Amino acid sequence: MIWNLILKLLIVILFLIQFWRRPSWHWGVGLLTATTAILLDTFLSTFNQEDVLAQLGFFYYPIL
Question: What is the pLDDT of residue 64?
Answer without folding.
Answer: 62
